[in-house]
Amino acid sequence: xxxxxxARLAGVSSAAVSRYMNGGSxxxxxxxxxxxxxxxxxxxxxxxxxxxxxxxVRQIGVIVPKIFSESVSQIMDGISxxxxxxxxxxxxxxxxxxxxxxxxxxxxxxxxxxxGIILMGxxxxxxxxKRLRECRVPLVVTGQNFEGFPCVYHDDFxxxxxxxxxxxxxxxxxxxxIGVTERDFAAGKARREGAQAALLAAGIDPETMPCxxxxxxxxxxxxxxxxxxxxxxxxDGFICATxxxxxxxxxxxxxxxxxxxxxxxxxxxxxxxxxxxxxxxLTTAHLRYRQCGVDAVRMLLQRIEQEDPEQGEAQxxxxxxxxxxxxxxxxxxx
Amino acid sequence: xxxxxxARLAGVSSAAVSRYMNGGSxxxxxxxxxxxxxxxxxxxxxxxxxxxxxxxVRQIGVIVPKIFSESVSQIMDGISxxxxxxxxxxxxxxxxxxxxxxxxxxxxxxxxxxxGIILMGxxxxxxxxKRLRECRVPLVVTGQNFEGFPCVYHDDFxxxxxxxxxxxxxxxxxxxxIGVTERDFAAGKARREGAQAALLAAGIDPETMPCxxxxxxxxxxxxxxxxxxxxxxxxDGFICATxxxxxxxxxxxxxxxxxxxxxxxxxxxxxxxxxxxxxxxLTTAHLRYRQCGVDAVRMLLQRIEQEDPEQGEAQxxxxxxxxxxxxxxxxxxx
DNA sequence: AGTCCGTGTGAAAACGATTACAAAACCTTG
DNA sequence: CAAGGTTTTGTAATCGTTTTCACACGGACT
Lengths: 334, 334
Fold this sequence. Notes:
The structure is a homodimer of 334-residue chains. The first copy, chain A, has twelve helices and twelve strands. Chain A has helices spanning 3-10, 14-22, 28-41, 47-54, 70-85, 99-111, 126-133, 156-169, 185-201, 218-231, 243-255, 289-307, and strands spanning 59-64, 89-94, 116-120, 139-142, 151-154, 175-180, 211-214, 237-240, 265-267, 284-287, 321-324, 326-329.
């Protein structure tokens, strides 16, 4: 099943077989003999050997924090479809929130000679940044806007600002913000700042809005909202960093005997499927997760291809950044 | 950055460096020199070359129909966590419903020398079966019970049977079944048969129950339920093949002016997150998706390890099958 | 002193492909 | 028919590792 075996069977040199497979010049006669030998043996070239020799492998690495998440799997969907089109496979690394693990995957992927890496960003610290900079294969970050890296990310700031303005327009004034860890610049910091910016624009002091930080799931939203309602019984609106948190908050509000949206408005971010069937359905911002994956692949492939022919390290000024737009989806929770 | 370079710098042979890395015998003195050389150069062995030489690669292939699906991503979650523990990476192939693409991925993975393959099963036809049988790396199928292959799957039949019995116990007699493609033995055939078996056990002729076949999403459930309600206005229960379908059906029922569960009972399968916050929350069967992934990996790794030392092809009688239990979750929709 | 064993060592042969190179074979022409 | 060009060919080097093999070096033991 090796190329040599095929060559022997066809009575030619292994170079001829290689040329046959890769479109080199082979006489019609040998071409037929080789074809038959391949047919008989079911020979298929070993990709490991090919990679070792050519240095190229049609694989790209994808590092995610976790796979069981509506947003991540949507991005992955975009990625894998787009890669499949170009005949690439994806080497997946699921790192959790563990920075060290993330770097370990980066190592392994480089050592496997992947053509490029997509990093679904969460946090960034100096050690990691340093490691990312000295990464020798093209890299694209999704979901976060990391200065100096090619990124595809969502407009978290303006999405939440618009949502908050919407709530304010309905006359709600005593809002609370339920956020997630600030170490996540996009979902944590940018979204909170968006909410505060909207307050400021409406002439309200952002400092007066109570802010909590919780986990990404509904349970976190539930606990936070319950706590906030106990502290500030007169709240009439919750701005939540994610839809899941918002849905949890909705439960807490209902549990307290208040009604959504009559007494309290609630908004989330992400446009998750559960938000479409809750009662009331959730007003939220739709983010283009799938598109994010698609764009990340396009960007990566472009860098890969441009790097290939010109060995001259190309222009490092090429670090493009793509900010994806959002869409406010008004449903019943405001 | 190659092993030779390191060897030259340390003043030893490349064999010594290799032994140093892989725990062979190296004198204390050289050990120090090599360590320093590695430190200086930041050398890390090339995995492609290692694979070529040793034949082993710590990667396993995973082929899924699509990644953006609550069940699939949950299984993947179990898989990737379990693999990470054992220091394996996953090579992902997203095949859609395209059988040919599935086989193409199988090819590529074999040619990449993956240690094993997990196939998230959907359909099975003779061509594919033949190809799977002659697959030269260990293979495990999840989600389906394919005779003759090692499988980890859910007890779809009894789950739906139990759900249907539950609905019948509440006095509902005029049920309809909304299913998915019968080409999917597990989610299509087995679940429908479970529903019919429950009817039979209750002394009702299964043939009297209208059955439709639709897509896996809520839209499909919505259309089907609307159609069924038009045809049979006296229906008082829907057994749905998946939660998403059930939630779609719930919308259709509500749209028709009927109430759930007062007028019509609805059940689904899968225990998806949206079902917990719908109004009313959905009665369903919880399937152990995550566990499915974990067990699949355990099974695969076991086969890989047993195959490794004994070159003697081992016992092919080892095709274990694991049937995962289900749990009925009674919420408000019955 | 000779034998035996265990540990360290480097040269060289794999692993399975691609490709540079030079030789051979085949055409066109003048 | 000779000269010059184009297409086919096989040999051998290469990619970066691991591993076999033979050998050298010390003891420990007869």
